[in-house]
Amino acid sequence: MSLYNPSRDQVRQFFFDTWAKFKQHLPLTDLEKIAIEVIQMHPEYHAILDAPERYMQQQYFPEMGETNPFLHMSLHLSVIEQINIDQPIGIRDIYHKLCSRPQGQSEGLQERRHRALHELVECLAEAIWQSQRNNTPLDSASYLQLLNARVD
């Protein structure tokens, strides 16, 4: 699998294989360990990951309200890696600020972390959409503005 530009099928196979290895208690790579954290945050995707023969070629249509679980989990992985290396500079601090703001009295740390990740995933998805719409590379400055708007 190309690390920098994997195909749709390679990404899906990565998630299917990682889930299968986890369920079989096989050793996981560092990236697979992060993927398992993301998968565990999304139990609604477990049935999909249990049926690769059914979902490998599944089409998802956002205009019909469908979320592509593989894209969603991939965005999570990207954001987690960005936080880990603090790139763009400041994303780690933004994430921690978002984590420190509970939405409700019963919201625990895990829920705050997941919510904060989702806020950052939305920013990344918006930045990617803008770059695709404008046929330009991802604009890091605009992405950082979207991120900062979440804590302002």
Report on this structure:
The chain has 152 residues and is mainly alpha-helical. The protein folds into two domains: 1-62, no CATH class; 86-152, no CATH class. The protein contains eight helices and no strands. The longest helix is centred in the last third of the chain and has 26 residues, at 109-134.
Number of domains: 2
Amount of helix: 55-70%
Radius of gyration: 16 Å
Span between termini:
39 Å
Strand-and-helix sequence, N→C? HHHHHHHH
Low-confidence stretches: none
What are its keywords?
globular, 152 residues, mainly alpha, 0% strand
Kindly summarize this structure in a few lines:
The chain is mainly alpha-helical and 152 residues long.
Topology:
Elements: H1 8-23, H2 30-41, H3 46-49, H4 52-55, H5 69-85, H6 91-99, H7 109-134, H8 140-149
